[in-house]
Amino acid sequence: MAVKGWISFWWLPIISALVWVGMLLGMLLHWIINDHSRPYAYQDQDISVVFISNVGADVLKPLFIAGSCVVCVFLDLSMLAARWLRHQGRLVPNSSRGERSLAIGTIVFGVMGTMGLILLSVFDTKNYNKLHYVFLLFFLGGYMLSAVCTCCEYQRLGIKHREHRDLRASFWAKLAVVLIEGTMAIAFVVTNFTKQNDVAAILEWAIAFLFTFFILSFVIDLYPAVTTKPHTARFEKRGPREMEEGSGATTPHHYSNGNVNSSFNDNVIDNVNGNSNVNDNVNSNVNDNVNSNVDGSVNDNVKGIINSNAKDNVNSNNNGNSNSIANANVNGNVNGKVNDNT
Predict the structure, then answer these.
(1) Basic and acidic residues composition bias: which ranges (predicted)?
(2) Cα dist from 137 to 75, 133, 211, whole Å
(3) pTM (two decimals)
(4) Any domain includes 236
(5) What's phi and psi for 257, nearest 5 deg?
(6) What is the pLDDT of residues 122-143, one digit of tens each?
(7) What is the number of domains present in the chain?
């Protein structure tokens, strides 16, 4: 299981870079140790440093061809993997047609550079001098344009998604390689056509070794896909209509993965529950107040009625008693007077 976790797309550029550096070191050490750092017979004997193509045109031509093929295949697979992972939501997806076009341009120009490198290794400088330099320009131009496209793509992605630091890291790494290699490539072409062979050869070896860092920069792009293997952790994908609407937008489009959505839903549910609890409390308080007020009003009315009725009854009783006493006194007085007369 631990080994399975280490198998991922970010190994593609590492394999490409290791093969590239191994091939270059093998060819350089072969020329230094086995050829004693001397120019080949078909070269000007006054030069001190040979070109990579000179070493690759001799006994190490099979290594040069095989190594170039492996490097290009794994580098192109790295570019294709980055595009596929963005489409699947494993990496931050493209949010506009411009970004998607730049991603496609990265692959197309990368394939052009691949064809140039493989063909220049086949058509060596010893037997096919002119064709070799034509394919060398294809190799340099193709990968240079591919690097420019991917820099522009990551620059746009980095602005819209500032929370993902890997986008900015990849952009600055690729930009640094593009600027340095672009400057050195111009110097190489100039010194090569002006027959400054030693300087041109040194620049060629330096450009080749520096190309390793461009390959390794794709590790920064592909490594974040390790954390988005679960479907719940993937990014939301945009449809063609949303991508068309966002192509001219200047405001960033924020994407969230499944964990953020679940947290958002939980917060919404908590808020809804909190609101229902508040409503329940308010309703209970209102009902209690209404009931207490109603009960108080009813009790006051009942007490008022009882008190008024009680007073009326007392008054009527008092009146009745006084009337009966008065009647009794009158009757007593009358009866007494009658008896006296009698």
Answers:
(1) 234-244
(2) 19, 6, 15
(3) 0.65
(4) no
(5) -95, -175
(6) 998 888 888 998 999 999 899 9
(7) 1
